[in-house]
Amino acid sequence: MREVRGAVIEAAGRPTAVETLLLDDPRPGEVLVRMTASGVCHSDLHVRDGDWDRPGPIVLGHEGAGVIEAVGAGLDPAVVGRPVALSWYAPCLRCRECQRGRQWLCLGSPSLRHAQADGTTRLQRQDGSPVLAYLSIGTFAEAQVVPASAVIPMPDGVPPEVAALIGCGVSTGVGAVVKTAEVPAGSTVAVIGVGGVGLSCVMGAVLAGARRIIAVDVSRAKLDLAADLGATDWIQADAANPAATVDAIRTAAGDGGPDFVFEAIGTPATIAQAIAALPPGGTAVLVGLTRFGELAAFEAFPFVDGGRRITGSNYGSAVAAVDFPRYADAYLAGRLPVDRLIDRRLPLDDLEDAFDRLRAGQAARQVVLFE
Ligand SMILES: NC(=O)c1ccc[n+]([C@@H]2O[C@H](COP(=O)([O-])OP(=O)(O)OC[C@H]3O[C@@H](n4cnc5c(N)ncnc54)[C@H](O)[C@@H]3O)[C@@H](O)[C@H]2O)c1
Ligand SMILES: [Zn+2]
Ligand SMILES: [Zn+2]
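Above are the sequence and the nicotinamide-adenine-dinucleotide SMILES. Below is the predicted complex in structure-token form.
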């Protein structure tokens, strides 16, 4: 048992407060990780703002990296001291989807319950009441006990904040392009919303050899960053005039519209734009997550008549144990400049301010650094 500081919300929709919690030792199949960095992803903000119903009290954070401090019985203690990135969807490795290699669809992940495999949590308040860990990893804490299948060793030379971003935004965005959609070289690609996830889609489109990469955002600063990362065209969207954005995307792409449109915001309006911008045969890849219960609409006749497609992309179809080291290698080789996404480093106590900036669209990726 040790004391750790962690950012807790009492329930979805409530602000975070940094508390000193008690963390139990790892049990069989579990790993104690001292956190080094945790990115601030919009999915944390969805919970913080009550867009998604989640149980509480819970330590937020799911884009994390750290160092292995201890392992539970049955695991090899030689891994102590290894730097790791954490997967926010710990696969059970036994269910039908895991057996098929589709771990991002695991049916038995403890992450669904924000607890360990046995359904209990290793975190508690000073009064002994349990505290959950978001997606079983709750990375806005100085240390966590997590399922062993969530712990992915990183190659030497990967900075903690880069490893953290590989844990969500990079795998989600790059993987949506290269794994979920398998974008062929020479394609035209548009990305609507170039925050941390959308910028990763842009990097993925560069890796895939896309011919044109059209970045779309309301923020001029984000578009400048997208251009630095390899976008060939940029469109400053006016949220009040969605039809103009669709026209601008189609014009920039030529040939009736882009082969692929990635939506990386998660609003019904921008999902509709992604679908409306497609030419016949085009594919809309939905990456952004809406509030629970929201519907998106599109006109059915031209969609069917034009043989268009819509696909959802969860976690960039990541098999973390395989893909995280690949993305890390691509970073080390200079082909995936993950560090360029980071525009602010902050202590855990400034998390609410980071959420304010993210909500206002003022940040690309902010990263909490631990001592
Ligand atoms: N599918 C997955 O597995 C997965 C994983 C991680 C995150 N997500 C989701 O992806 C989404 C994006 O996450 P993020 O961390 O990059 O968020 P973010 O807030 O950093 O990025 C959103 C971007 O959209 C822009 N934007 C907002 N409204 C717009 C509009 N009307 N037109 C054009 N641009 C607009 C903002 O300026 C911002 O740059 C969130 O919904 C998040 O929950 C999905
Ligand atoms: Zn995320
Ligand atoms: Zn499984």
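The radius of gyration is 20 Å.
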